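Lecture 7, part B: from sequences to assemblies.

Below are the input chains for today's worked example.
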Amino acid sequence: MGELARDLAEALDPVLWAERVTGHMLDPWQAELLRGDCRRVLLNVCRQGGKSTTAGALGLYVAQHEPGALVLLLSPSQRQSGELLRTVAGLYGADDSAVQADAQSVLRLELANGSRIISLPGKEATVRGFAGVRLIVIDEAARVSDDLYYSVRPMLAVSGGGLVAMSTPFGKRGWWHKEWTEGQGWQRIQVTAEQCPRISPAFLAEERATIGAWWFAQEYMCQFGETSDQVFSYELVAAALRDDIKPLEAAKHLTTARESEV
Ligand SMILES: Nc1ncnc2c1ncn2[C@@H]1O[C@H](COP(=O)(O)OP(=O)(O)OP(=O)(O)O)[C@@H](O)[C@H]1O
Ligand SMILES: [Mg+2]
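Predicted structure of the full complex, as structure tokens:
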């Protein structure tokens, strides 16, 4: 295939592009994500399932093929943001028909077509100020704080951009667990280690015996475990909550008394 024909085919099918630059056959969920509209997607994927690779590939594909696109990659820490941008840079370097770079640093890649990929660490203060965002990809979403999540969502209000959040579970807590279990309007994709062709049954048996049932269920089976400081289970508390009961009179007096002390 000539280069022009290849570029055309890849512009129509991101999977062709991703398989060339990663050098891997994509797993079905990776292909589904790249071919989808990425409006609101949650991915509950096991450890080593390919989340960061997919996050980087998705961000880079959009930046290369949609001139002027602003892509934000979000991670819980500076170190992970740097790792994620390194993944992007690796894929970018492997693409012999990539759009030329205008600027590149450890946390950002700016392309000559006006697109930018910016990898942000999980501090709420550092993410404010971006407008016209085409796509936000959150890696390790379960460890990204509620503050950060609620401060990035408004960036999509005017641009109509997409939001993709991928993670392994981290207990029944936080926004990602809430969105996964009860959020509206999300496409949900789940991939356990048993569904990952690169993780062998023998390795999983060893892990199950070594790390114990709680960790195994979380790291490899996409299960949200009770957090260690919970006295009552999440289901027990949720089942006990009712909207039709008014607060106690005594509690109201207490609040009023406290407010008058201030
Ligand atoms: N479709 C694929 N085919 C072959 N190898 C792949 C594929 N997708 C990812 N990998 C490889 O699998 C390994 C793990 O990928 P990656 O780091 O993206 O996973 P992860 O889910 O982010 O892992 P972690 O949970 O540890 O953060 C990497 O070496 C990556 O290159
Ligand atoms: Mg990762």
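Note for the exam: The radius of gyration is 21 Å. Keep this in mind when comparing with the next example.
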